[in-house]
Design goal:
Elements lengths: L1 E2 L28 H11 L4 H11 L13 H4 L7 H14 L4 H12 L5 H14 L1 H11 L6 H14 L5 H9 L11 H9 L5 H10 L5 H17 L2 H8 L7 H13 L6 H10 L5 H13 L2 H4 L7 H10 L8 H12 L10 E2 L4 E2 L5 H4 L5 H14 L2 H16 L6 E7 L2 E6 L11 E2 L2 H6 L5 E6 L13 H10 L3 E8 L2 E7 L5 E8 L3
Parallel strand pairs: 1-6, 7-8
Antiparallel strand pairs: 2-3, 4-5, 4-7, 8-9, 9-10
Helix pairs in contact: 1-2, 4-6, 5-6, 6-7, 6-8, 8-10, 9-10, 9-12, 11-12, 12-15, 16-18, 19-21
Length: 516
């Protein structure tokens, strides 16, 4: 499994019902004691348990308040009940209101991963009482990445009630990330934005965040994500046209516009925006100019479906297989079909993904007539490079090294070097175990101008069960918007090659066999 920029992109929160201790009525109550008791009763728990739970939540009653020698430390003591922690927080507020340790603990409670929503809310209100500007700054900074969706819901309601329009960028940043707890239409961030902006079209609100010149480093960092969100909410082309109305003084807007005008591509994702910005660097200007010349030679049909990931393919095809550029889609498909004849293929029954359960086609025969001309050209280049004998032998050598290294999978990029296909390995960002490869920044940057990213599934000599991309691999391709290859060991001296993209295309190219 390949992962994005050091993060486990299979998104763990999607593998569990809700990693939301704050929303679970026993492990962390978010809705107050009455709701907790009701929830306990609904779950068939004894009334004694429910009453005990009530006593644990409420800082007074059921024996009276408890006094702590060090209430600040008690605020996050895991041995205490939520009610006791709340009592400690109130004691610290009375006795040590300006103690820096107390303020630090309040921020930790607001931001941490394990506290109940009601307790976080209590901490935030105490922080606001101490310093309102600081409390709002913590909320604005933490909201887009907060681990508790219950707290996100509470915070969005607070922001909307108070009319904090200046929190719009933070709400948009939070809306950008996927949520396991809410549908898109009922996302609390979306509802808050609509309330703050008089029920205007959510896309118009997000576009204003994109169009607004960056006010600080955080805003500048997140604007590409806002652009991706905008494209998730609707078609890209209308927004691309709107960019023409904005100033050229804004580098991101200028890069988006030039990518559209000169290269014929619309950057739709955050990673594509970052890639476009990389290609606009001074040292890449010769590459950009040559690529724009190639794109200008394409027919309208050849440009249909053109994405940034196709541009390195066009560059290498023009350099090493220029006659392919004159072939029709039907001719490219016919050549591919002929090349795949006689190769061994491996199609798992299904590919698990957090986005989808992929039970769709995984063969060229099934995909072929649905592929655009740029995709057919890309598959043709992948097939030609992968089955070139020198590269095939090199891949088998790398696969053996990977199998012996139990700390990580191996991966890198495939490109031409000195006129020959070459697979270049990049050390992982970090090592966790034998079924993940964490792509480092150096590999991501190299991939901006390389046709393919690749990695291995070679934990066993015969790893047939795991042939093809896994769920995390499909997510990586979708997030990074790249052409990707995965090589699976299916026997001694045998690697099955699968091509896949961010569009869910998965094509088994067949099996590389080490020459005897």
């Amino acid at each position: 499994m390949i992962n994005v920029r050091g993060s486990a992109f299979q998104i763990i929160s999607r593998q569990a019902p809700r990693l939301e201790s704050a929303m679970h009525p026993i492990d962390g109550i978010s809705c107050g004691p009455e709701a907790a008791i009701a929830a306990a009763l609904r779950q068939g728990r004894a009334i004694g348990v429910a009453i005990g739970l009530f006593c644990g939540l409420v800082p007074t009653g059921c024996g009276g308040p408890r006094s702590f020698d060090d209430p600040i430390a008690a605020m996050i003591d895991p041995r205490l009940t939520v009610g006791e922690q709340q009592a400690a927080m109130e004691q610290a507020r009375r006795e040590q209101p300006d103690d820096p340790r107390r303020i630090a603990q309040l921020k930790e409670i607001i931001s941490g991963a394990t506290h109940a929503v009601a307790y976080r809310a209590q901490a935030w209100r105490q922080l606001e009482e101490h310093n309102a500007d600081e409390a709002r700054a913590v909320l604005e900074y933490r909201l887009p990445t907060h681990p508790s969706w219950g707290f996100v819901e509470w915070a969005c309601e607070l922001i909307a009630e108070r009319g904090w329009v200046e929190m719009t960028p933070a709400l948009v940043r939070s809306l950008y990330r996927p949520s396991p707890s809410f549908t898109d239409e009922l996302r609390p961030e979306r509802l808050a934005l609509m309330r703050l902006h008089d029920n205007r079209d959510i896309r118009e609100i997000v576009f204003e965040v994109v169009a607004d010149p960056p006010r600080n480093v955080v805003h500048a960092h997140w604007r590409p994500a806002a652009w991706e969100l905008l494209n998730r909410l609707g078609e890209s082309d209308p927004w691309q046209d709107r960019l023409a109305l904005l100033t050229d003084d804004d580098p991101m807007i200028r890069d988006l516009r030039l990518g559209y005008v000169e290269l014929g591509v619309i950057a739709r994702t955050r990673e594509e925006v970052l890639r476009l910005q990389h290609l606009r660097r001074d040292e890449q200007q010769a590459w950009w100019q040559r690529c724009s010349e190639i794109v200008a030679m394409l027919s309208p049909e050849q440009k249909r479906g053109l994405r940034l990931r196709h541009l390195p393919v066009l560059m290498r095809v023009q350099e090493f297989h220029a006659h392919w550029l004159s072939l029709s889609a039907e001719e490219l498909l016919s050549a591919l079909e002929a090349g795949l004849v006689g190769r061994a293929h491996f199609h798992p029954d299904a590919i698990m993904s957090a986005r989808t359960l992929n039970t769709g086609p995984q063969s060229l025969r099934e995909w072929g007539h649905r592929l655009s001309w740029p995709d057919l050209l890309t598959v043709r280049l992948a097939d030609t490079m992968v089955f070139e004998p020198a590269l095939a032998g090199h891949l088998l050598t790398q696969a053996q090294r990977d199998r012996e290294d139990k700390s990580t999978e191996y991966g890198g990029v495939i490109d031409y070097a000195e006129g020959q296909p070459r697979a270049t390995l990049y050390p992982p960002l970090h090592r966790s175990h034998d079924k993940k490869y964490y792509a480092p920044a150096s590999m991501i940057e190299a991939g901006h101008t390389a046709p393919f990213h690749y990695h291995f599934h070679v934990q066993e000599v015969r790893n047939t069960e795991f042939a093809g991309p896994g769920g995390g691999d499909l997510e990586y391709a979708a997030a990074m918007a790249v052409n990707a290859l995965v090589f699976t060991s299916v026997g001694e001296g045998r690697l099955n090659a699968d091509f896949y993209t961010e569009d869910g295309i998965v094509i088994d190219l067949g099996t590389i066999v080490l020459a005897k």
